[in-house]
Design a protein that fits this description.
Largest sheet: 6 strands, antiparallel
Distance between the termini: 101 Å
CATH superfamily of the domain at 508-751: Histidine kinase-like ATPase, C-terminal domain
Oligomer: single chain
Shape: flat
CATH architecture of the domain at 508-751: 2-Layer Sandwich
Strand order of the largest sheet: 8-7-6-11-10-9
Number of strands: 23
Number of helices: 16
Strand content: 15-25%
Low-confidence stretches: 99-106, 703-709
CATH topology of the domain at 508-751: Heat Shock Protein 90
Helix content: 40-55%
Structural class: alpha+beta
CATH class of the domain at 508-751: Alpha Beta
Length: 753
């Protein structure tokens, strides 16, 4: 009985294993065959999306290369023109030695000009004294008065306010020219060198095309570039500039009409896309280069608007068919491997069970009991862990979604439902763009940003994004997204944590509005002080004019008024009025509401600002010493004036506490490619306990009627807008005319590009 029992214990598991493995193998084969069609369909879909993404990215990559190379060659071209002008330094000294003898014919014999004329540029020399053209070999100024020449901004070339040593665009006889203009340092000669703008642009285009010719070609994704003359089509509506698969097509003109109806439809289709959206995909039949057969193809076209270039690339559908066949073979191979594995596992398992059961039959009950107990405990632990993970997932305060490689949401938690206002069933199998507005907060197309999101998320372990969602009730939600790439069941997924930062964004907007209000308050405070200064400045000139008027009246009545005296008095009154007018001009520039970025001279800004406040300094016996180099900064001039005026007013108020020798020093110089502007006084300095707070908003040591406490704070905010701009203050001691002084020194530093 025991032997039979032992035999049953051995034979029954073996038979069960054989039957189980056989049934499992049959089931797996059926499942693999049943799911093969779905797998192939999914493979086709993913392959199609991947290929579209590849050609989209490849075309945009080519577009970016064109833009980068255009900028690079444009800079080289301008440097070449500028260097051409710099060659005339030797000619300048030659001309000065022979100024009264040289005529235009002799000018051409100057050694420096022989080198100058070896290039293809247009070179023009103008005598500013006589307004005559001394040199114009290309005769572009024939029948044109020098005084009438203006740049594209309407400023005359010979205008007294003209800034030389820069590029200008000039329209002459319906053609536009780009010139580099330079005035010689030691003579009154003006040099213009450049060329027709269209020729310069064409030169850049040719260089760009030569560069693109050397890029690697790929028969599967070869690139082509066309120049479009007429987006509506017609005869010779465009020309092929580059074709990697068939270089012989370069230079060929394109016609809308064709004997091949497929080719005619293909051209009409991509011209329509270019007209309506500037980029897009089309499907058509085309010759495949490697076998010269007509195949179905999908291409992406993109319009480079600056030059009306169309960049394109595509892939052939028969490549997909070959990939599908490979995929089918791989499925069949999996089935075969599954059968082999099942047989091998079954054999090994039977062998192992037979040997094991033969030796441990007596202990089998105890092992089964122990196993059952252990299994029960493991199941309980697994259940607890599952409940914990499910609770963490569903009840997390942050939104969580699981994102698949095909761009669809697999799952989401309760917070996502509350955040977007949709049920989970409405969210699954959708993409991010389905719950977003057409454009993101940075004006980027949502579909483009999602493509970037997928590419980055599946190629980086973790990454952070900002995303704009649109809830079911049309409320915009600014969210912070953190992605984590995971691999589950041999599939890549992305675990996405979404946090609503709408309140944070609104707070940032509110902070920006407060900054604007502070700036306006600072401006009003500065305007009040400015009006006081102007009132002081106007008293003396107005008093002088009043006295002159009384003098004219009294002298005229006496009959002793000569023409010379009238002329002298008139000139004197005119001088006083011009002074008042200049004061108004400086005040107008200061109060100008326009915040235009311009290239201004720091020395001029210091002079203008000081002239506005000069009456206050003279009234209070404050001596001002100004030393400044000719330094140009790119920024908002009236805001920079406001910074200097704020510091000057603070120093003036501090100097009023000094009984004698009230001194103020302003110095601007260039150090290590930086502007270093210092303003120091001899008012004794700032108390150590408050010096760290002088740039805080609303902090002031003045009476509440004399200061708002935001002038220095706004000065800091203005200077921060410049490249690595800083402003600080410290107490210093120094000697002036062998007398020791102590005071405060403000220092402004700005990087110069």
């Amino acid at each position: 009985m025991k032997k039979n029992f032992s035999l049953y214990i051995i034979l029954i598991p073996i038979l069960a294993v054989l039957i189980s493995i056989t049934l499992i193998t049959i089931h797996n084969i059926k499942e693999l065959n049943a799911t093969a069609k779905d797998d192939i369909k999914e493979f086709t879909k993913n392959y199609f999306i991947e290929e579209k993404t590849k050609i989209y990215n490849k075309v945009h990559f080519f577009s970016n290369i064109i833009k980068l190379k255009t900028d690079e060659f444009s800079k080289e071209q301008r440097n070449s023109i500028k260097q051409n002008v710099e060659k005339i330094d030797y000619f300048e000294s030659y001309f000065l030695d022979n100024h009264n003898k040289v005529y235009s014919k002799k000018i051409k014999k100057a050694p420096a000009l022989k080198e100058l004329f070896k290039n293809n540029y247009i070179n023009i020399i103008i005598d500013l004294d006589s307004k005559k053209i001394l040199l114009d070999e290309k005769k572009v100024l024939d029948n044109i008065r020098v005084e009438d020449i203006s740049d594209s901004k309407g400023l005359k070339v010979l205008n007294s306010n003209r800034k030389f040593n820069e590029f200008i665009e000039v329209k002459l006889n319906k053609n536009k020219y780009l010139f580099y203009i330079k005035k010689l340092k030691d003579s009154n000669l003006l040099i213009l060198s450049g060329n027709d703008s269209k020729k310069l642009e064409e030169e850049i285009k040719q260089k760009v095309l030569k560069t693109l010719v050397y890029f690697d070609t790929d028969n599967r994704y070869y690139m082509f570039i066309m120049e479009i003359f007429n987006k509506d089509g017609g005869n010779k509506y465009g020309k092929v500039l580059l074709h990697q698969a068939n270089p012989s097509l370069a230079g060929k003109f394109l016609n809308e009409k064709s004997q091949n109806k497929d080719m005619e439809k293909y051209r009409k289709d991509y011209l329509k896309i270019i007209r309506e959206s500037g980029e897009g995909f089309i499907t058509y039949n085309y010759f495949k280069p490697e076998n010269n057969t007509i195949s179905k193809k999908l291409s992406f076209f993109y319009l480079q608007k600056d030059w009306n270039w169309v960049i394109g690339s595509g892939f052939y559908f028969n490549d997909l068919e070959s990939k599908k066949e490979e995929f089918k073979l791989s499925i069949e191979e999996k089935i075969k491997e599954s059968v082999k594995t099942a047989l091998l596992v079954g054999f090994l398992l039977i062998l192992f069970i037979s040997i094991a059961l033969y030796f441990i039959t007596s202990k089998i009950n105890r092992l089964i009991n122990n196993y059952a107990t252990s299994l029960s405990e493991s199941n309980e632990n697994l259940k607890k862990q599952k409940d914990i993970f499910k609770t963490l997932f569903d009840k997390s305060s942050d939104g969580i979604i699981i994102y698949s490689e095909n761009g669809l949401i697999i799952n989401c938690n309760d917070s996502i439902e509350k955040m977007l206002g949709y049920d989970k069933s409405d969210i699954r199998d959708k993409s991010l763009k389905d719950f977003s507005p057409k454009f993101q907060y940075d004006k980027e197309l949502t579909i483009s940003k999602e493509n970037l999101f997928k590419e980055v998320a599946f190629n980086n372990q973790t990454h952070n994004f900002e995303w704009l969602f649109l809830s079911k009730n049309k409320r915009k939600l600014f969210c912070e997204i953190r992605t984590t790439r995971l691999n589950l069941d041999s599939k890549n997924i992305v675990h996405v944590v979404i946090r609503d930062i709408t309140y944070k964004k609104e707070l940032e907007t509110k902070t920006k509005r407060q900054q604007v209000m502070l700036a306006e308050e600072s401006k009003k405070s500065a305007l009040g002080e400015m009006l006081t200064m102007i009132a002081h400045q106007w008293r003396q000139p107005l008093n002088n004019i009043n006295l002159l008027i009384h003098f004219v009246r009294d002298t005229f009545d006496s009959g002793k008024f000569s023409k010379e005296e009238l002329k002298e008095i008139t000139l004197d009154m005119k001088t006083q009025i011009e002074y008042l007018s200049n004061t108004i001009n400086d005040f107008t520039n200061f109060t100008n509401p326009k915040k235009e970025l311009t290239l201004f001279c720091v020395k001029d800004v210091i002079t203008k600002t000081y002239n506005l406040a000069i009456a206050q300094f003279e009234k209070n016996n404050i001596k001002v010493f100004i030393e400044s180099e000719e330094i140009k900064v790119y920024g908002i001039e009236n805001e920079f004036m406001q910074v200097i005026l704020n510091i000057l007013n603070n120093s003036k108020d501090a100097l009023l506490e000094v009984e004698k020798n009230r001194l103020l020093f302003i110095n601007a110089k260039k150090e290590d490619e930086k502007l270093v502007l210092t303003i120091k006084d001899n008012a004794g300095g700032i108390p150590a306990k408050i010096i760290p707070r002088v740039f805080e908003p609303y902090f002031t040591t003045k009476h509440k009627n004399n200061g708002t406490g935001i002038g220095l704070y706004m000065s800091t905010e203005i200077i921060k807008q410049y490249k690595n701009g800083t402003i600080d203050v410290k107490n210093v001691s120094f000697y002036h005319e062998e007398i020791f002084y102590e005071g405060a020194m403000f220092t402004i530093k700005i990087d110069l590009d």
